[in-house]
Amino acid sequence: MNSGGSFGLGLGFGLTPTSVIQVTNLSSAVTSEQMRTLFSFLGEIEELRLYPPDNAPLAFSSKVCYVKFRDPSSVGVAQHLTNTVFIDRALIVVPCAEDD
Predict the structure, then answer these.
(1) Are 86 and 38 in contact (CB under 8 A)?
(2) Distances (CA, A) of 37 to 6, 41, 67, 80, 100
(3) CB atoms within 10 A of CB 32
(4) From the UniProt record, which GO molecular function terms apply (predicted)?
(5) Plot region of 41 (φ>0 → left; ψ -120 to 50 → alpha; else → beta)
């Protein structure tokens, strides 16, 4: 427990809340619009980046997505989507430091 009486696990690593999640194990067929639609149900999205981008000339076996929410409490909710099958793979959602 931290000094505030809570564990602080749902907001990121340690005591500093984060507004960013990293989503891995994404299908190569996923688009940024699909990711925006999925995560917009959890909170207002400030920024979303998908790597490699939708218009990448080369084919990749998987993708990674970073989502920055306006409200840090959306990060804890988003983590509950871990192991949810999206297209053909189980998502892995983890909090991510904002300055990385």
Answers:
(1) yes
(2) 31, 7, 12, 16, 24
(3) 16
(4) RNA binding
(5) alpha
